[in-house]
Specification:
β8 and β9 (about 140-150) form a beta hairpin. The protein has helices at about 20-35, 105-120, 190-205; strands spanning about 10-20, 40-50, 50-55, 70-75, 80-85, 85-95, 125-130, 130-135, 140-150, 150-160, 210. The chain is globular, with a radius of gyration of 16 Å. The relative contact order is 0.21. The strands form two sheets. It has an eight-stranded mixed β-sheet, sandwiched between helices. The protein has a three-stranded mixed β-sheet with strand order 4-3-5, with no helix packed on it. It has one domain (about 5-210): 2-Layer Sandwich (BirA Bifunctional Protein, domain 2). With about 210 residues, it is α/β, with parallel strands linked by helices.
Length: about 210
């Protein structure tokens, strides 16, 4: 659906490739701190080098045996999660005030976008009350974690596409004791570049965003 905003309010997208979490985290914070009403909204896509990130509410007991994978404190919401190659992380740097979008609207829109994408692969998914993210056959396939500062969002979502799931066994993912983790490759043949394009399209449709390169 076309956005009601003018063309100057397009969301600019960029694929960062494989990145170090700490540097992208710092870039998000710096961009959000320096935003003005004229700053462009952006969506960054990346695959991170292996890292565990601990959200603001994170409890150390949920980090069981990190081994040689670093654990980095983040300022997003939620508990501990894992990022690694084969997982798409999308960072949504949006001015929610200009877009007249509440935080709950954003969370719901992201979840709908992920479900819409999974439907393209005939993967049935579900949501859980009080546990943000998307689940397939009771296993978590996508994680959400956001922060809003001065009405602007950053952080976002991660979708497990075709990755090594072993590191999730070193934590209680998102602080959940009764939940295991899966990825799209367990159900369908997937190609990560195609999934990135489809994810952007689904986010645009559900959040009513006009995307630009």
């Amino acid at each position: 659906m076309a956005n009601d905003l003018d063309k100057s309010a397009c969301v600019f997208t960029k694929d960062l490739g494989v990145t170090d979490y700490q540097s992208v985290f710092a870039d998000m914070q710096a961009y959000t701190r320096g935003r003005t009403p004229d700053s462009a909204d952006k969506i960054w896509l990346t695959e991170h080098a292996p890292v565990f990130t601990q959200g603001q509410a994170g409890k150390p007991e949920h980090v069981l045996a990190p081994g040689d994978i670093p654990v980095i404190q983040s300022d997003r919401g939620g508990q501990v999660t894992y990022h690694g190659p084969g997982q798409i992380t999308a960072y949504l740097l949006l001015d929610l005030r200009i877009r007249k979008m509440g935080v709950r609207d954003l969370v719901s829109g992201i979840e709908r976008s992920l479900q819409r994408l999974l439907t393209l692969y005939d993967i049935s998914s579900e949501l859980r009350s009080g546990a943000p993210g998307v689940y397939v056959e009771s296993q978590k396939i996508a994680q959400l974690g956001l922060r809003v500062s001065r009405g602007c969002s950053y952080h976002g979502l991660s979708l497990n596409v075709d990755m090594d799931l072993e590191p999730f066994g070193r934590i209680n993912p998102c602080g959940l004791l009764d939940t295991t983790v899966t990825h799209m490759a367990a159900f369908r043949t997937v190609e990560i570049a195609a999934v990135k394009r489809q994810l952007l399209s689904c986010l645009a449709a559900e959040l009513r965003l006009s995307l630009a390169d």
